[in-house]
Write a structure and sequence with these properties.
The protein has about 80 residues and is mainly beta. The chain has 1 helix and 5 strands; from the N terminus they run βββαββ. The protein is about 10% helix and about 40% strand. The chain has a 5-stranded mixed beta sheet. It is globular.
Length: about 80
């Protein structure tokens, strides 16, 4: 496990709004595929997660309003 989120990591987060866990893989923008939960480090979620640690709660800004996700694990 690594202590901070960076490109290439799989990050499991808990979405407090939808009360579900989601695992994202942080990739470069050319590899991004939201349907496969591969998100770019330049996307709103990816950008918010970069450099954060397990246990951090991150606020994601979206067109439908802001929401919080909590980092559960980083691989």
């Amino acid at each position: 496990a690594t202590d901070k989120v960076s490109v290439g990591n799989r990050v499991k987060v808990y979405d407090e709004t939808f009360e579900e866990e989601v695992e994202y893989t942080i990739v470069g923008s050319s590899e991004a595929n939201p349907m496969e939960f591969k998100i770019s480090d330049e996307s709103p979620v990816g950008k918010a997660l970069m450099g954060k640690k397990v246990g951090d709660v991150v606020t994601i800004e979206s067109p439908n309003g802001n929401y919080d996700i909590k980092i559960v694990s980083i691989k």
